[in-house]
């Protein structure tokens, strides 16, 4: 059997310990341009389709084809009401081949394997987040991801949060409240201020909150678990804060089929069952031939 181990991409014991104690981990310079290409291309395609639609509907008179990836969506929606953008959704979950390529990236899976072992299921819950400047719904309130699947016995679910552009306080980078990963699920409600209905931790739990901004660059990734409390601010820059949040869990946990079809991303025991791109597009969690 071909080995999938590649020691250089695994977390060091020190990194794994930091993750265990702090509840998050920032990894710098892991992904290169070739790793990012499939997802960038998928998103550039999607933005072009949106531009075509806006032109056809008479909402814009310029496709902004010369604008860079970091800016094009911002230019297209500049000065328009939030609702024009939110029609496309605040988080995207397209079943585009580029998403599968990216979610199966061995460097990402190696980091995850260091924490949960080599039997890895990729969760159906993943998002591309084009946080467009000025769109109120760009900010994400303080929450635990587990509040989105409180009944599920999936544990741990590891989020791998990946910037597609440089992120910072101005454009609404990810913020975490360290050492909250062992907290039980805290009570929460649907936020009402921006109409997103995002889940938000009840105010009484936020006294004494310690917020840590995690500015990162393309190539970096941030790992945290589904009870680690986190948020992000609004985008006050003039570019799009593009990111992806992917989720992985051990295969013996609840695959949450009611939230869509995830897929077997890596297995040392049954490598032949790892879902192919075609399986994923057809929404088959495993390769069953
Ligand atoms: O990307 C963001 O702004 C928030 C991300 C988030 O809440 C998540 O990944 O669960």
TrEMBL record:
GO terms for molecular function: 2-oxoglutarate-dependent dioxygenase activity; iron ion binding. SUPFAM superfamilies: Clavaminate synthase-like. Gene3D superfamilies: q2cbj1_9rhob like domain (2.60.120.620). Keywords: Dioxygenase, Oxidoreductase. It comes from Rubellicoccus peritrichatus. This is Phytanoyl-CoA dioxygenase family protein. The lineage of its organism: Bacteria, Pseudomonadati, Verrucomicrobiota, Opitutia, Puniceicoccales. Pfam families: PhyH.
């Amino acid at each position: 059997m071909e080995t999938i181990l590649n020691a250089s991409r695994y977390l060091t014991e020190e990194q794994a310990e930091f993750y265990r104690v702090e509840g998050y981990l920032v990894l710098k310079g892991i992904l290169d341009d070739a790793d990012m290409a499939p997802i960038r291309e998928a998103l550039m395609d999607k933005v072009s389709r949106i531009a075509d639609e806006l032109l056809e509907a008479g909402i814009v008179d310029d496709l902004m084809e010369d604008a860079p990836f970091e800016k094009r969506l911002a230019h297209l929606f500049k000065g328009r009401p939030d609702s024009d953008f939110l029609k496309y959704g605040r988080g995207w979950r397209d079943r585009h081949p580029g998403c599968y390529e990216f979610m199966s990236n061995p460097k990402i899976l190696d980091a995850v394997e260091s924490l949960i072992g080599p039997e890895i299921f990729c969760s159906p819950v993943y998002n591309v987040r084009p946080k467009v400047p000025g769109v109120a719904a760009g900010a994400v309130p303080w929450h635990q991801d587990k509040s989105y699947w409180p009944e599920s016995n999936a544990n741990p679910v590891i989020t791998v949060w990946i910037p597609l552009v440089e992120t910072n306080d101005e454009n609404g980078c990810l913020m975490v409240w360290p050492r909250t990963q062992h907290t039980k699920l805290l009570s929460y409600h649907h936020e009402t201020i921006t109409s997103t209905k995002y889940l938000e931790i009840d105010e009484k739990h936020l006294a004494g909150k310690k917020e840590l901004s995690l500015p990162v660059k393309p190539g970096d990734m941030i790992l945290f678990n589904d009870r680690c409390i986190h948020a992000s601010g609004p985008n006050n820059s003039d570019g799009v804060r593009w990111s992806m949040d992917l989720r992985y869990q051990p295969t013996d946990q609840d695959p949450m089929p009611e939230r869509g079809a995830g897929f077997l991303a890596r297995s040392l025991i049954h490598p032949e069952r790892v879902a192919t791109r075609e399986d994923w597009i057809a929404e088959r969690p495993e390769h069953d031939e």
